Amino acid sequence: MMDIAIYSLVDDMVSKAGTEGVVEYWLRVGESYAERMGKEAYVGWPAFNVAMKEGRTSLTVEGEVNVLTDLAIIDKDGDVIGYVYALKTCPMAPTMRRYISRIGPIPDSDTDVADSYNNRIRDSAVSNYCITHQKFREVAANNITVAKQALECLQLANKGMTGDVKMVPENLARINVDERHIKSILRSASCVFALIVKGKSAGEEIIE
Amino acid sequence: MAENIESNPFVDVSVYLFFEDISDKQGVEGFTNYMVGQAQSLAKSVPEEEYETWDDFASAVVSGESVFSSFESIEQISKCGFVTNICPFSKAIGEYIKRIGNFNPVHIEATDHYNHTIQPSAAHSACMMHQTYRREVAKRITVGGKPLQYAQIGAKAYTGEIALPPESWKKVLLEKAGISETQGFMEMRENSCLYLLYVEG
Questions:
Q1: Please, are residues B110 and B31 in contact by the beta-carbon 8 Å criterion?
Q2: Region of poorest pLDDT, from A137-141, B19-23, B171-175
Q3: 8 Å CB contact between A52 and A151
Q4: Sign of torsion, CA A162 A159 A131 B36?
Q5: Nearest Cβ partner of A12 from B9, B10, B34?
Q6: Interchain CB distance below 8 Å, B37 and A11
Q7: Residue B1: what pLDDT?
Q8: How many other C-beta atoms lie within 10 A of the C-beta of residue B117?
């Protein structure tokens, strides 16, 4: 029942704090959720990918993830710097289905909050919940090391309940993966992301 | 019985954290107000229902066909006495503890605030949402043309603590439910929530 509360809570919050206020709340929730999960260290990519497949990492608390080991991301020196992963089912999907079946249509505030995020921060949310979910992944990834190197999560694409798709072109370019390839992965997944060594890219290294 | 769609605990836990974030900004009172307010909004969104007889209503509730039992499995123990065996928040509470650890103390503070300012019936912060939802959704149901009334008798927290009304209320409520105090305790051993549903007159 707790999950169902999201829609009425967001509706209430929008009327009191505005869509921007709700975006800020969701960003903080994603951050604190990930921070409270703690840190993890893996000796190398094979160990990390096994943990992802078995659902043992903080990143897999959201649901089952396909580890696309055929999509290794390689830097200019030919070293593997990360992989692409696909979340099979959006964690919000059961809540949406339940809300629609028991209560009615999803309130407009869901889209309003997502639009506020898309217009101001990054055009990658298909529902208001994507805001906290994507932030959670980004912060959780920073708390994981593979071969003593911190990770970075790059949101690549996601698909909404009605089939609308959001792509993040700058992240696709950074790992040098074609948009059509990601779309084909989205046929059997709801969210696609890459985990790479922080600061690296398929081309030149990014210096922060 | 309606299809039971299980929520993803990832979402459940994040909602608890959302409320905690609200309490950081607006204190325990803000936490309580938001929890109560959103349960009121949620209840106002559900379709209205009308039943000709009490038996029709009770049967719809027990079979999960009424909006009153949208989120929980309810049993009837007497004409007006009803119980919920498993708290619909127990999974989310368990996942929070498993993933994050001890509950943030603000949940206890908010529960106390609710018990002192609204009514002494909550065993956990989630009870504030649940009981408000029940109270508001009852207003959307009529039985024989009369509005349904709801009163909480007992609620059990995941720690085993039971929230009960003051002695004077408890006696009246149990009497109206048609169960003795001993029966009430027996029910609370087996169930998470005991309450009264009735129509006036």
A1: yes
A2: B19-23
A3: no
A4: positive
A5: B34
A6: no
A7: 43
A8: 12
C-alpha torsion sign, points A14, A16, A21, A26? negative
B72 and A CB contact within 8 Å: yes
Question: What distance in Å separates the CA atoms of residue A93 and residue B200, rounded to the nearest whole number?
Answer: 41
- Chain B residues inside the 8 Å CB shell of A92: 8, 11
pLDDT in tens, B123-135: 999 999 999 999 9
A203 CB neighbour count, 10 Å cutoff: 12
* Residue of chain B with shortest Cα separation from A136: B14
Write out pLDDT tens, residues A173-196: 999 999 999 999 998 899 999 999
CB contact under 8 A, B99 and A28: no
Percent with pLDDT over 70 in chain A: 98
Q: Do A2 and B45 touch (CB under 8 A)?
A: no
The span from the CA of A107 to the CA of A109, in Å, is 5
Query: Of how many residues is chain B composed?
Result: 201
Cα of A103 to nearest chain B Cα, Å: 5
Domain ranges of chain A: 5-197
What is the C-alpha separation between A18 and A109, in angstroms, rounded? 10
Q: Provide the ipTM.
A: 0.72
Nearest to B89 by CA among B1, B155, B186: B155
- Chain A residues close to B38, C-beta within 8 Å: 5, 8-9, 11-12
Q: A191 pairs with which residues across the strands?
A: A87, A158
